[in-house]
Amino acid sequence: MADVHILLYGKKGGELCGEFLSLPNVELRTVSEWSPLTAWKVYRELRREGVHIIHFHHLLPALYFLPFNKIPKIITLHGLHIRKYDFIKAPLRKLLRRFCVNMILYTMEKIVVLCLEDKKYMCKVFYHDRDINKVVVIPNVMEQGHDTEIADLPRREGLNLLVVARYDYPKGLDLLTEMIKKISRMDTSTHVPFQIYLIGDEEIIGLTEGTEGYMKYLGKTLSPYAYMKAADYLLLPSRWEGLPMAALESLSVGTKVIASNTANLNDFADGENIVTYELGNEQNFLQVLDRAYLKKENPVTFDMSLFSPAHVGKQMMGLYMRYISNMKEV
Question: 51, 121, 159, 297: which could form a disulfide with 46 (CB 3.0–4.6 Å)?
């Protein structure tokens, strides 16, 4: 990275500003708001300074850069954002949004997605199948080595599951609650007993009502790793996800994952480190828990090196350098 200089443009007060300021080859430049005028001014700066590639991580600034195509453009699409429009009920708004996305992606040299599931999903988004050739899979970086003590989790017999999530529609906590309410009215004597602990926003407390003690709210924490270590499995009941960082964080501290089949982990599910259940299917959920109970003492064997800074950085730099080399040859 010594020969690379990165200009990072973001809104003032953005969450990532502090993280990037410590990097020697990154220069942070803030904007008050993204608008067509802001995009024009930034583009002029980039042209004057001889920037080789523009890499977007958000659709809005990419939309404002539509008229400017003298510098090659790349975009990283996060599945958590691109999938949410499947749930728009207004057909006209959904069609308009898809049209705008296709306009943006048409101007991109490459489209980076975080996992193979997202690449498959892009086939539904594109108007033309040929555009899928633009898509490359490069995951997010997952920093390892969360050295923390094990939390004092009030463990129960059977399986102790942990949910770490904000109170948000994509996270599917309402669907989990409805499923658990159904289970509480069933005869589960032939299945492994379980307890679900929740960490997150206080609004989650209301979800535990009527679950007959199956779900217990533990509180809010900025560091969930101690609780992840204490649990038998992390439970991910999401309607949709991008690349779920909570799942990777859990695996990094030695705790395996049970996820819904819509949580974007199907390509990583190996039946050992990550297992999936059918969203909303209580019978299938209980069967998955029965199988997971038999394997809960097995250590995590998931290859976390795929998400290391070195591996991901090598992939991204390879993508950048190919375009720089192509430009020099022209």
Answer: 51
